[in-house]
Amino acid sequence: KIILYILKIIQESTMATRTNNPPKPHLGFGTRVRKSPYFESTLKWGCKEYTTYNHMYFPVYYNTPEDDYWSLINDVTLWDVAVERQVEITGPDAAKFTQLLTPRNLSDCAVNQCKYVLNTNYEGGILSDPILLKLDEDHWWYSISDSDLLLWAMGVAGKDKYDIKLVEPDVSPLQVQGPKSKNLMVDLFGSWINDLKYYWCKQTEIDGIPVVVSRTGWSGEIGYEVYLRDGSKGAELYEKIMAAGEPYKIAPTGPSQIRRVEAGIFSYFQDMRVTDNPYEIGMDRLVDLEMEADFVGKEALKKIKAEGIKRKLVGIEILGDPITMIVPKEYTPGYFVPDHWPVNDTQGKEIGYVTSKCFSPRLKKNIAFAFIPIDHASNGSKVIINSPYGNLESIVVDLPFWDPKKQIPIGKA
Fold first, then answer.
1. Closest alpha carbon to 309 in 374, 368, 370
2. Predicted pLDDT at 116
3. 28 Cβ contact partners less than 8 Å away, ≥ 6 residues apart
């Protein structure tokens, strides 16, 4: 199947060259990059593009990004997100060490509760922005973004300093996202799904397949994550969910760039990196400098807060015609592979860069995130984006662009 897929890619690239359009580079498959337990299923269901994430192949889209977006906001979608690897921390010192890795106060985190957190280094830079799951008093998972957090945790732990065990367990999540996801999950798991609160989880099984189900997701829609705890059951679990979702027009997709930008959801390394701190991305609420417990980066973040930040990640509306992922005819090689677009002030001086951008079919606007100096970051400030489409007038606006109080994923919309 993989060979046939690669031959198809070569044929598409050849045809693109013959029609005078630059061929789109594709990802080659090999043994160096890991495949998820759902990889064969994603091929079977027609994934058209993969990328890599945490040293693993990651499905991007199946139809078109816009088609996948409409499936997400109208019906229900299934994502292979096994790339969200787990850093598992167990043992007598598990709670203490888990807290050491994050500036968010975990003292009130109950068993079977989840929290969105940041991990910071000793300079206060962001290393990852995982979902944290507390499965027992001495059993925690950091469900990580694209980062080698396990290696960092091993370094912080040192040798014999903490009575813990640090491993990457055999755990591979799927996301079930969209307005019809609750009905699908009730059909699969039973009526207890109706009682599962936002950012809580339950350890359970389905036909003998061990899983953890959490009321979380990366979509801005109501949704769930199903953490498979036995990789040999990947295809079986994937097909069960697809079959249960047929009455609800389920579509296999990847995470929607459009929907997550609408929701003001950031992507690690795309929107924030180790060179950025929580205050610059507006995540002050995830930092508790007053708690008694220590955490990596505490002193650095105290200093950053006291001195104030010089730049900020903001929402911007890019005026003009819809921007797409299609490269303009007058493309240059530097723009062929997507990169951060420069942001200029109205006098033409470069002051920052766009991190994520898209055209929202629902809002009928170009929306984006950008890092810019703090004195340009107030709502209504005008900037110019230097793009392959030319210089585009833009304006700073509030985040998020849609559902500002997160009523949809909470379940109150």
1. 374
2. 98
3. 6
Beta bridge partner(s), residue 395? 317, 382
Listed residue (306, 308, 171, 290) closest to 228, CA to CA: 171
The pair of structure tokens assigned to 200 is 């809580």
DSSP annotation of 200: B
By DSSP bridging, strand 139-143 and strand 56-61 are: unpaired
Give first-to-last CA distance, the chain, whole Å: 43
Give the angle 94-98-101 at the CA atoms, nearest 5°: 145
Q: For 215-348, where are the alpha helices, taking DSSP H only?
A: 234-245, 257-262, 298-307, 333-336
> Which residues are CB-neighbours of 288 under 8 A, at least 6 positions away?
103, 104, 105
- Would you call the peptide bond into 173 cis, given omega within 30 degrees of 0 as the criterion? no
- Residue 84: phi and psi, rounded to 5, are -75, 80
How many Cβ atoms sit within 10 Å of the Cβ of residue 133? 28
Element (H, E) at 373: strand 365-373
Closest CA relative to residue 360, chosen from 258, 257, 221: 258
Supply the Cα-derived Rg of the chain in whole angstroms.
22
Phi/psi of residue 177, each to 5°? -130, 140
Residue 124: what are its φ and ψ, rounded to 5°? Answer: 85, 5
Q: How far is CA 40 from CA 35, 44, 46, in A?
A: 9, 6, 10
Q: Kindly state the average pLDDT of the residues 2-25.
A: 52
* The model's pTM: 0.92
198-234: pLDDT as tens digits = 999 999 999 999 999 999 999 999 999 999 999 999 9
What are the helix (H) ranges across 101-212?
Answer: 149-157, 181-189
